[in-house]
Amino acid sequence: METNQAAEHLQTIRTLMERAALYRRALAPVMLLVGSLGVLAAAIGLLAHLKSDMAFLELWLGTSFVAMAGAFVLIRRQALKDAEPFWTPPTRRVVEAIAPPLSFGAAVTLLFLGPAGGHSEAPHVLAPVWMALYGCALHAAGFFIPRGIKWLGWLFILCGSGVLLLGFGADIPVFGREPEAGHLAMGAAFGLLHLAYGIYLYFTERKNVA
Description:
The chain has 7 helices and no strands. By secondary structure, the protein is mainly α. 32% of the residues are buried.
């Protein structure tokens, strides 16, 4: 049994190394898509004056579902283009790595959707928690996916920590407890950070191809 597991691990590592370019090509459009949706959602939240807890949750949960669906389509299309199976051992390893922090994030979100919610704290709690846990998920995935995912994860963790400290420990109107602060923070992190990383991947990939 141990010999079989060791062989599987070696095959997974070999496959990950061989598919490094594929992961990178798929990541660029995914990051650009998610970043664009993050900026759009923040703009909608600010322009439509969505200040209530439920409006914040509906907007950003809806955006996350659209982003996940779009990412799935892009990755699936890339796999089909390169004649690669979608659900492979490396893919399973990545999913297993990101599942714990994302599961905890879902549990915290459900807390605000249930009877305990509705006390005007969702944007100020969920925004930094989502950032930090998403950063942890990216950092964990970075052990299997190359090209800076770990560093992007650290940026999300630092952003989440900063927003949490500024929101609860500082009296700064732009970053503090104002209703719009949650949309600004989410747009800056999930929008601009994804866009910046996607643009970086896009141009470096084109340079490598050339």
